[in-house]
Design a protein that fits this description.
- This is UDP-N-acetylenolpyruvoylglucosamine reductase.
- It is found in: Cytoplasm.
- Helix content is about 25%, strand content about 25%.
- It starts with a helix and ends in an 8-residue tail after the last strand.
- The radius of gyration is 19 Å and the shape is globular.
- It folds into two domains: about 160 residues, Uridine Diphospho-n-acetylenolpyruvylglucosamine Reductase, domain 3, CATH 3.30.465; about 80 residues, UDP-N-acetylenolpyruvoylglucosamine reductase, C-terminal domain (Uridine Diphospho-n-acetylenolpyruvylglucosamine Reductase, domain 1), CATH 3.90.78.
- By secondary structure, the chain is an alpha+beta fold.
């Protein structure tokens, strides 16, 4: 991590820094990203047991690997991570969750790196945690976390497989998408609202709402990021007009609309 801190110090102060894991819930606009992009996948890749129930996980480790490592260690609580296709840093940043469990329910503390190349050990109380939302100290990025799990009381490996089967049965796994598009509104499901508004299978350019799960947009035919973003905006307007509910995107839309990058 010392190399990473040194690199951060070498990035000119006005230049933006963007951290990217596996990009599973990211839509990069067609103009790309200005500034320095730090790819954590394959870089911050250490995971280890600190004691019988505590894990240390760096931000570039895939969420699925965290689930498998915990299961092999005889621990439970992280099984839901097996179905989240991204890095653990991304899971921390958005409080990723599935099947009623969220990432920050496991977190004991996090390690961060700031723009001055300094590392910090942060506690949960330093952050405001909500559904798919994490707010904390500005200009700091997650580089690792300490997780508190529980001794296994059921077959965690079997539970992971069951959750993965459920995901494969219900979601368009294996097709190009940027993951779940919208957050579920309180007491309802984004997919239900989108389907009720008649958007299942509807396309804009090469981007189409999945026939299998309406909260996924599939790149069926060389879709541009603009196609996907336009479809997202049209769905938001339609659902708002039909139900009065304002859908909030879960996918993070980043980068420049223009194709010119200087």
């Amino acid at each position: 991590m010392a190399d990473l801190a040194e690199f951060i110090l070498q990035v000119p102060a006005p230049k933006p820094v963007f951290w990217l894991g596996l990009g599973s819930n990211i839509l990069v606009r067609d103009g790309g990203i200005r500034g320095a992009v730090i790819l954590t996948a394959g870089l911050l890749n250490e995971i280890k047991s600190l004691d019988e129930t505590t894990l240390y996980v760096e931000a570039g480790v895939s969420s699925a690997k965290v689930a498998r490592f915990a299961a092999r260690a005889g621990l439970t609580g992280a099984e839901f991570l097996g179905g989240i296709p991204g890095t653990f840093g991304g899971a921390l940043a958005m409080n990723a969750g599935a099947w009623g469990t969220e990432t920050w329910s496991l977190v004991q503390s996090v390690d961060t790196l700031d723009r001055q190349g300094q590392f910090h050990r942060r506690q949960i109380t330093d952050y405001t945690i909500a559904y798919r939302s994490v707010k904390g100290p500005k200009n700091e990025w997650f580089v690792a976390a300490t997780l508190q799990l529980s001794p296994e009381t059921e077959n965690s490996k079997a539970k992971i497989q069951a959750l993965l089967k459920q995901r494969n049965d219900k979601q368009p796994v294996g097709l190009p998408s940027c993951g779940s598009v919208f957050r579920n509104p309180p007491g309802d499901y984004a997919a239900r609202l989108i389907e009720e508004a008649g958007w299942k299978g509807h396309c804009v350019g090469g981007a189409c709402v999945s026939e299998k799960h309406a909260n996924f947009i599939i790149n069926h035919n060389a879709a541009t990021a603009a196609d996907i973003e336009n479809l997202i905006e049209q769905i938001k307007v339609s659902v708002k007009n039909m139900s009065g509910i304002s859908l909030i995107p879960e996918v993070h839309i980043v980068g420049e609309r223009s194709n010119a990058i200087s």
